[in-house]
C-alpha cells in the first residue's frame, strides 16, 4: 500500500512544510511501534515516500538545486518528470499506479477551489485521491512552522522571487 502513495514536491514553502510533517508522522509511528513491540521495527518500512517533481525548463536554478539537495538530504525517492503535468501523471500512473498524492495545497491557492482534505482528481485527469493535509493552513502558519522549526527553505523566498515564479508554474490536478 505504501508504494501506491506519492508526495508531490516542488521545492516551495508549502510542500517543504508537508515534507517535514510527513517525516514527523513516520517517525511518530515508528516510535509507537517500537514501544509496543519492544524494538521490533521490521513492520514499518523506511520512510522513503515516492516523491514526484515536475521539472520545468523555465524553473530558476535555485528551485532545482533546492529540490535535489532536499531529496538527497532526506533520501527521498525523487522521480523527475519533464513532461507537462497531465501527460507526466498519465505516464507515471501507467508505469506504477498511484492511489493518492500528498499535495502542499492551501485554501488560498488558485487550484484549491472546491478542494477538501481528501479530493478526487479533476475530471479528465488520471484518477487518484488528492490529500491536502495543510489545506486550512494560512500563509502565516506556514512561515511560523518553517521559522520556528528552523526548516531550510528555497533561498529565492529571501530574495522575494519565488512567490511570483510559483504562481506562473501552478498546475491543477
Structure overview:
The chain is α/β, with parallel strands linked by helices and 173 residues long. It has a single domain (2-169), classed as HUPs (Rossmann fold, 3-Layer(aba) Sandwich), CATH 3.40.50.620. The protein is 41% helix and 13% strand. The chain has helices at 13-37, 61-73, 85-95, 139-148, 156-159, 162-169, and strands at 5-8, 50-54, 77-81, 100-102, 118-120, 129-131. A 6-stranded mixed β-sheet has the order 3-2-1-4-6-5, with helices on one face. β5 (118-120) and β6 form a beta hairpin. The radius of gyration is 16 Å and the shape is globular. Mean pLDDT is 84; it is low at 164-173.
Question: Which tags fit this structure?
Answer:
173 residues, single chain, Rossmann fold, alpha/beta, 41% helix, 6 helices
